Amino acid sequence: MQHFHKVLVNTLIFNVVTGFLAYSLLFWVYLETRNVALAGILNAGYMGALAVTSIFFGSIVDHNRKKTVMMASSCMTLVLFALAGVVWVLWMDSATISLDSPALWVFSILILIGSIVEHLRNIALSTVVTLLVPEDRRDKANGLVGVVHGMSFLVTSMMAGMAIGFFGMETTLWVCLVLTLLAVLHLITVEIPEPEIVTQHADATVPIAPAPSADGEVFTPNPVPSDLHTVSRGLDIRGSLAIIRGVPGLLALILFTCFNNLVGGVYTALMDPYGLELFSPQVWGVMLGLTGLGFIVGGMIIARVGLGSNPVRTLLLVNVGIAIIGIVFTIREWGWLFVAGIFVFMLITPAAEATEQTILQRVVPFRQQGRVFGLAMAVEMGANPLSAVIVAVVAQAYLIPWMDGPGADTALGVLLGDGTARGMALMFMLSGVITLIVVLLAFASRPYRQLSRYYASSSQDIAGQTAQ
């Protein structure tokens, strides 16, 4: 656990630095050019690249020692940020920055690629939890991972704008470059003990005892190719899907997560516009930062009490809560209600993320986890921006005009009351209702029972085996 805590601290430093620089870049580009399209292109390109590379990164994690992966990722990030510094000194002219400025594009791409490469560490971290943390403590360890992500979000979202406003891009770049160098030096001192048997792609998995149901159905793994470690080390989608299909109910879990992130596009698209209808930009920025504390508190709660004996059930219960929040937190244009709803949403989100991590760490063989985590992250990151674009278009073109016109006199109009953002409120409510229906159906589904029983009957205590 001491090794795990050191890795976690190092990950926090890297996540804060890279996220801080990426946010600062996007803020700076918009303030310098006042070009919404350019900022949107950079943001969409960043999210899209994260989704695509996650699968490739997962294969890299599976085929290399975790310390080697983290060190290579960190050094590449440092080199790319340093090259961005060279571009700034030798080529960048802030007085002539525009959409067709080659220097601006090269500078921005170097920083964004450096931030994307750092994401390789996050996939490796998920497998490090399996490697270093005893099985009965993984849910709490994943809660600590949630705390790290929450602290990263809080720092980057609140400080990036202040840094650009008070110090400018140049100072921000040099500070981040120095912090990245210090984080690399710290990582050199961090040890990740990885047994040789894991490096040689042995399963390192305790045999799974079949768990028959009352009607005699046995929940055992589906056949999976035994030579998956020899599959292409690049974009190994086939190998990832084969692994997922080998675990009863796991594909349904991935699809459920995909659905959640499609619905999450409602929050991505409308949370800031709705907040800006209720608050001034300055106050909304503070409110958003304060609600981010919910993510930290939620992660600390999971780290303290865990996720219960059946994380699959916990995941669905958390989504019941998310659905209820979506239904009620914009039912009136009350600032306190909106902020409270976001805080509770942030508070329970770490439980959803920790449950998925804990399930995968137990039911997927360690030597194959990188590919599965990579594919799951690709689905998550790809679904959200896609749905955000659709939601934004639908809300702007249909729901907002309808609620401002004929919809105001309907039952929905009476339910949601008066205000300037009733169309967005209707979208939040609809997403909550749809989520609630899907979660209730999931509770009654066969994949839910399969995965719950398979999880209960499986074991993968690599840390415990290593200690013995």
TrEMBL record:
<keyword id="KW-1133">Transmembrane helix</keyword>
<feature type="transmembrane region" description="Helical">
    <location>
        <begin position="103"/>
        <end position="132"/>
    </location>
</feature>
<dbReference type="GO" id="GO:0005886">
    <property type="term" value="C:plasma membrane"/>
</dbReference>
<feature type="transmembrane region" description="Helical">
    <location>
        <begin position="37"/>
        <end position="57"/>
    </location>
</feature>
<keyword id="KW-1003">Cell membrane</keyword>
<dbReference type="Pfam" id="PF07690">
    <property type="entry name" value="MFS_1"/>
</dbReference>
<dbReference type="InterPro" id="IPR011701">
    <property type="entry name" value="MFS"/>
</dbReference>
<feature type="transmembrane region" description="Helical">
    <location>
        <begin position="172"/>
        <end position="190"/>
    </location>
</feature>
<dbReference type="InterPro" id="IPR020846">
    <property type="entry name" value="MFS_dom"/>
</dbReference>
<feature type="domain" description="Major facilitator superfamily (MFS) profile">
    <location>
        <begin position="1"/>
        <end position="450"/>
    </location>
</feature>
<feature type="transmembrane region" description="Helical">
    <location>
        <begin position="12"/>
        <end position="31"/>
    </location>
</feature>
<feature type="transmembrane region" description="Helical">
    <location>
        <begin position="312"/>
        <end position="329"/>
    </location>
</feature>
<feature type="transmembrane region" description="Helical">
    <location>
        <begin position="144"/>
        <end position="166"/>
    </location>
</feature>
<feature type="transmembrane region" description="Helical">
    <location>
        <begin position="283"/>
        <end position="305"/>
    </location>
</feature>
<feature type="transmembrane region" description="Helical">
    <location>
        <begin position="242"/>
        <end position="263"/>
    </location>
</feature>
<feature type="transmembrane region" description="Helical">
    <location>
        <begin position="372"/>
        <end position="400"/>
    </location>
</feature>
<feature type="transmembrane region" description="Helical">
    <location>
        <begin position="69"/>
        <end position="91"/>
    </location>
</feature>
<keyword id="KW-0472">Membrane</keyword>
<dbReference type="InterPro" id="IPR036259">
    <property type="entry name" value="MFS_trans_sf"/>
</dbReference>
<protein>
    <submittedName>
        <fullName>Multidrug resistance protein</fullName>
    </submittedName>
</protein>
<feature type="transmembrane region" description="Helical">
    <location>
        <begin position="420"/>
        <end position="444"/>
    </location>
</feature>
<dbReference type="GO" id="GO:0022857">
    <property type="term" value="F:transmembrane transporter activity"/>
</dbReference>
<feature type="transmembrane region" description="Helical">
    <location>
        <begin position="335"/>
        <end position="352"/>
    </location>
</feature>
<keyword id="KW-0812">Transmembrane</keyword>
